[in-house]
């Protein structure tokens, strides 16, 4: 099982670099994101496989819904994505 | 093959409604989005399956990279997602 790259507010190339590093150490990596960062996680996987690691592929994509508690104790649902890559 | 719901700039519930309508007429529907709307497409699928159509499921998710031409003739890459749902 490869390590997990959590995609958040940094520039996409930071996560591309982290994903590439993982793919030099392991055959597998998972890219995870929640909410608005989901689009960036997809960008990250697409950039890695198209531009930097041509022998890598997306082996699976799953989505889920997580329940988060905000500062005032209210609950809200947020979507998440997990993109599995391997080479 | 079900119809395609293209997710863009409208509120997510507009696409949830369109997806639900399709799932009353057909067993299958595809939800597609590009760029920042990808997160909203995932929200749409998650809301439909968790809240409104409990017998539906996500049967497949694929991502791709499309090359778009902007107004000045320059080319840029944009990620896309296709979420297949069935019930």
How would you sum up this structure, described in words?
Two copies of one chain form a homodimer. In chain A, strands 1-2-4-3 form a four-stranded mixed sheet, with helices on one face. The first copy, chain A, has helices spanning 12-25, 37-52; strands spanning 3-6, 28-34, 57-69, 75-86. Chain A has 87 residues and is α+β, with helices and mostly antiparallel strands. At the A-B interface, α2, β3 and β4 of A face α2, β3 and β4 of B.
SS field, number of helical segments of chain A: 2
> Largest chain interface and its two residue counts?
A-B, 20 and 20 residues
Strand content of chain A: 35-45%
Assembly state: homodimer
In this structure, how is the largest beta sheet of chain A organized? 4 strands, mixed
| Integer tally of domains of chain A | 1
Identify the notable features of this structure and list them briefly.
Translation Initiation Factor IF3; 87 residues; elongated; 4 strands; alpha+beta; 4-stranded mixed β-sheet; homodimer; 41% strand; 34% helix
Topology:
2 copies of one chain form a homodimer.
Chain A: E1 3-6, H1 12-25, E2 28-34, H2 37-52, E3 57-69, E4 75-86
Parallel strand pairs in A: 1-2
Antiparallel strand pairs in A: 2-4, 3-4
